[in-house]
Structures are given as C-alpha cells and as structure tokens.
Amino acid sequence: MAGGVTTPLLVAAVSDAGGLGMLAAGYRTPERLAADLVHVRDLTTRPFGVNLFVPQRLDRAALGDEVEAFARRIAPEAADLGVRPGTVSWHDTDHWEAKVQLVETLAPPVVSCTFGVPDAGVVDRWRRVGCEVHVTVTSSVEARAAAEGGADVLVLQGQEAGGHRGTHDPGVDPEPVDHLGLLELVRPETDLPLVVAGGITTAGDVRRALSAGAAAVQVGTALLLAPESGAGRTYRAALRDPRLGERVLTRAFSGRVAGALATGWTRRYADAPAAFPVVDQLTRPLRRAAAEAGDTHRLHLWAGSGWRAAQERPAGEIVRELAG
Ligand SMILES: Cc1cc2nc3c(=O)[nH]c(=O)nc-3n(C[C@H](O)[C@H](O)[C@H](O)COP(=O)(O)O)c2cc1C
C-alpha cells in the first residue's frame, strides 16, 4: 500500500504472522526504498515482497488541455488550503529503471507489479536472481497478458478493492467484477497460482476464496487501522466516521480509478481526466494540506468495500484471525 500506509513494521508484522508482507515501492524514491527494504530484512527473517507501479506512457498531446483545465478548476480549493496545485511532469517520476535495478540487486523473495506487465527482459532479470514475480490483473484479458509475460503468480483484484485498480490501460474503465467473479473467469484459463483481492476482511471471506480455487488472498483495507500502518490521523478518523457511509470508484484524486470513501471532492471531480500520475501530482499539495488540517473532504480516503470491518488491532492478530 503505497502513499505512506505500508511501513517496514507493517510488512514485518504481516510476514511474522505467516502472511506475505508487501513493501510498497510506488511514490518512494529508490534511496528510501532501499533503506526500507534493508529495514524489513532487519525486522523479519520471513519472506516478504516489494510492489512496483509499472509506468504507462501518457499522451500529453491528447490530455494536456484537459489536465490544464483541471488544474485551473482545483486552484481555488488549493488557495482555501493555503497551497497551490502541484507541478506536473509528463515523464516517469517514479524511477522505474532504478527500482527494477534495485530489486535485481537486493533480490527480495517476491516482486509484485501493478498497473501493467513489465517487459519480458525485466521479468527475466528478476527471476534470474531468484525473485518470484506476481502481476496484478483486473480482467481475463490482462490475466492472459500477464501469464504470457512470464508472471509466476497472478493477483486477481476485484472491484471491491481499496485504493487504485490495477487496470493495465489507465484510460479504460475497469471491469465491474468482484474477486470471486474474476476467479471464475480466469481459473479455467491458467494453471498459475491465483491470489484474489478485494473486500476480504473475515476468515469466512478467506475460506470462500480458497474453496473457490484461490491459492491465497490479498488484503489491504483490513490492515489500515493496525498500529503498524502508516495511515495518518485524518485518514484513520474518516475510516471510523459514521457520516462517511458510501464508497465510490473514482479518478478524482489521481486520474486512475480507485476505491475510496465518497466525499465532497469525489462528487465535485468525478470527471477528472484519466491522466495518472499527473492528476495525482496536481492534487498532492492539497491532499497533504487537507490531511494536516483534518479536512476529510479533500483527502483521498482509499477504502475497500469492507472498510467498516477494519480493526484497530496489531497486524499480526488480524492476519492470524483471517487465516482462521
Ligand atoms: C491505501 C491503499 C493503498 C494501496 N496501494 C497499492 C499499491 O501501492 N500497489 C498495489 O499493487 N496495490 C495497492 N493497493 C491495493 C491492494 O494491493 C489490494 O489489492 C487491495 O487493498 C485489496 O482490497 P481490500 O482493500 O478491500 O482488501 C492499495 C490499497 C489501499 C487500501
């Protein structure tokens, strides 16, 4: 879970409890990622993984005007918060090449990718140093592409998932299918182990997924309130706020479709351009200021459909309870 939620403590606590903790590389600098990876290794001897965003080429000619108009629209809200919209870059700001190299050098047991399938050459480099490669998919077409691209494991992410949908083409709307539906579609097509994700918060959810043929489950939202999570106080308060009772799939914060609690922002900017990560860059200063000010209505409140079941308990206890 990129964006500060994943901490080395959370990764280690999940792995120590018998899960596979995942260190989020997205938005982190390569230097910070390397330091966090070494930190996880200090904290646990159990296997863990690193998760990377696969970059997508953005068509500036097609999207530039829409992005500029969006920047003008949010400027008054930024002023309200005492900031300006962020500066955009149409180039890769997530340091993909450096992170690919870092994974190859530090060789974590698992590397997982979202937002696309890495080139065959990259998958090869990682596998040669002993990494198992997981790829997130949200449709059977993407599952086929990931299998053909050399993935060892597919992560089937349903529409109930919190945070960004891993859909490979950021311009298309993700398919409205839940994790069990996606499992039914993909299971007959491949022998690869399938991990399912989205809305899983109880041992019963886990049992249902395993008996439907999943090799494992992935959870995010269930861990958000754990003390080891880096979720900030405004985010934590929002997840427990009974007035925030609706969840939407929205591009409003980042330009990519994500599962989030409905707020004033998601209502006002439901038509944000499909331009990740430049929309993310524009809204970042506002979101940071909103988090500091306790303004839940301008903060990206990523949440899966089971957010009400998230518990403020140590991550290890949550993982053990899920495992039944
Ligand atoms: C706050 C948050 C951040 C996330 N960040 C990432 C990420 O960086 N990479 C990724 O592959 N998935 C990310 N996800 C999606 C999770 O990997 C997972 O698919 C999802 O949490 C499962 O659904 P659930 O939240 O209902 O358990 C994130 C989810 C949340 C809630």
Instruction: Write down the CATH topology of the largest domain.
Output: TIM Barrel
Give the class from helix and strand content and strand pairing: alpha/beta
Report the radius of gyration as a whole number of Å: 19 Å
The SSE order reads HEHEHHEHEHEEHEHEHEEHHH
- Strand arrangement in the largest pleated sheet: 1-2-3-4-5-7-8
Helix content: 25-40%
Distinct helical segment count: 12
Strand content: 5-15%
What does this structure look like?
The chain has twelve helices and ten strands. The chain has 324 residues and is of the alpha/beta class. The protein has two domains: 1-55 and 92-226 and 309-324, Aldolase class I (TIM Barrel), CATH 3.20.20; 59-91 and 245-300, no CATH class. The strands form two sheets. The protein has a seven-stranded parallel sheet. It has a three-stranded antiparallel sheet with strand order 6-10-9, with no helix packed on it. α5 links the parallel β3 and β4. The model has no long low-confidence stretch (mean pLDDT 97). The structure holds flavin mononucleotide (FMN). Flavin mononucleotide binds at residues 1-3, 5, 24, 26, 51, 114, 136, 157, 160-164, 166, 197-200, 218-222, 302, 304, 306.
Features:
324 residues; TIM Barrel; seven-stranded parallel β-sheet; three-stranded antiparallel β-sheet; 13% strand; binds flavin mononucleotide; oxidoreductase; nitronate monooxygenase activity; NMO
Topology summary:
Blueprint: H1 8-16, E1 21-24, H2 30-43, E2 48-53, H3 60-80, H4 96-106, E3 110-114, H5 120-128, E4 132-137, H6 140-148, E5 153-157, E6 163-164, H7 179-186, E7 194-197, H8 203-211, E8 216-218, H9 233-239, E9 247-250, E10 258-261, H10 264-268, H11 278-293, H12 315-323
The structure holds flavin mononucleotide.
Cofactor: FMN
GO biological process, one term: response to toxic substance
GO molecular function, one term: nitronate monooxygenase activity
